[in-house]
Design brief:
This protein has 291 residues and is α/β, with parallel strands linked by helices. Helix content is 45%, strand content 15%. It has two domains: 5-181, NAD(P)-binding Rossmann-like Domain (Rossmann fold); 190-286, N-(1-d-carboxylethyl)-l-norvaline Dehydrogenase, domain 2 (Orthogonal Bundle). The protein has helices at 13-24, 36-55, 61-69, 94-104, 123-128, 161-173, 189-205, 211-221, 228-235, 237-251, 260-267; strands spanning 5-9, 28-32, 71-74, 85-88, 113-116, 136-141, 150-155, 177-181, 280-281, 288-289. It binds nicotinamide-adenine-dinucleotide.
């Protein structure tokens, strides 16, 4: 199936990154969000990130204008009517995603495909809430999308071969590499990564080390490019908590219990970089540990 027009729902950190790589690869993109401020911010972020790529010689300066021109911001799902594929990248909350699909499906043509960028929710279950489970797939981009090479591809139980092949073609066309994961809670990357982050928060909670010691230990002792708490702030603490909850409930094993300190940070609205404060406070010139 030939895919030319793609819709992206949710213009947060993932949605803007997905729109960025798709438009550079030549796709026509409608980027939709219910929050107009997020849409304005996304457009500015995409432009800034493309300029950064151009300064590093990764893309040509003259590619930026046409790519930005291929992204159309929209505050309504009406813009999705002529899309060949819609990638949902809204908040990691099953009720939110289900409601989006309920409103999206009647607007789409019968042959249009839907993908979800969910980090952890069952693709089969999300697919079952649509009118086209055979044309529904998980396309799990990594953050930041323009930089990270991997896209996990997750088939639901009903996903057909045409949809799977179309997804692989898109990943190739945007210059990324696919890894196939079965539809189990949090797939591969987050099944392994999030319990490590959660354990780092327990290490902080139990006073084994402070934020700086934990991150320094993992950066220099395990050769990780970022400390786990720095990475948690980067991912978003609400997303981290939500993935742990899905693992805890989906696999029914107490080893996935979300750390109470992670819950507390989320309750405080300290969600990491995107809100200016998490395990670090980003409101000054340099990030300052909050514990
Ligand atoms: N943050 C990561 O590192 C990461 C990595 C891979 C996948 N994901 C997944 O990507 C998705 C988005 O995550 P994010 O980090 O971009 O979150 P985010 O909070 O930055 O952005 C979510 C966006 O969705 C919008 N939104 C909420 N309800 C909506 C609706 N009904 N219609 C349209 N837009 C709506 C919000 O306004 C917000 O702009 C989640 O499913 C998340 O699990 C996140």
């Amino acid at each position: 199936m030939s895919i030319e027009r793609i819709g992206v729902i949710g213009a947060g950190q993932m949605g803007n990154g997905i729109a960025h790589v798709l438009s550079l690869a030549g796709y026509d993109v409608v980027l939709e969000d219910i929050n107009s401020e997020q849409l304005d911010r996304a457009t500015a972020v995409i432009q800034r990130n493309m300029q950064r790529q151009s300064a590093k010689g990764l893309i040509k300066e003259e590619e930026i204008g046409p790519a930005i021109g291929r992204i159309h911001a929209s505050q309504s799902l009406e813009g999705m009517r002529d899309r060949d594929l819609v990638i949902e990248a809204a908040t990691e909350d099953e009720a939110v995603k289900r409601k989006i699909f309920q409103e999206l499906c009647p607007r789409l043509s019968a042959k249009a495909m839907i993908a979800t960028n969910t980090s952890s929710i069952s693709v089969t279950r999300l697919a079952a809430s649509t009118d086209r489970p055979e044309r529904f797939i998980g396309l799990h981009f990594m953050n930041p999308v323009p930089v990270m090479q991997l896209v996990e591809v997750i088939r639901g139980i009903a996903t057909d071969d045409t949809t799977f092949q179309a997804a692989l073609d898109i990943i190739k066309h945007v210059g990324k590499t696919a890894a196939y994961a079965e539809d189990f809670p949090a797939f591969i990357v987050n099944r392994i990564l999030l319990p490590m982050i959660n354990e780092a928060v327990y290490t902080l909670y139990e006073g084994v080390g402070n934020v700086e010691a934990i991150d320094t230990a993992m950066r220099l002792g395990a050769n990780h490019p970022m400390g786990p708490l720095q990475l948690a702030d980067f991912i978003g603490l609400d997303t981290c908590l939500s993935v742990m909850q899905v693992l805890y409930e989906g696999l029914a094993d107490s080893k996935y219990r979300p750390c109470p300190l992670l819950v507390k940070y989320v309750e405080a609205g300290w969600l990491g970089r995107k809100t200016g404060r998490g395990f670090y406070d980003y409101r000054g010139k340099e990030p300052v540990p909050t514990r």
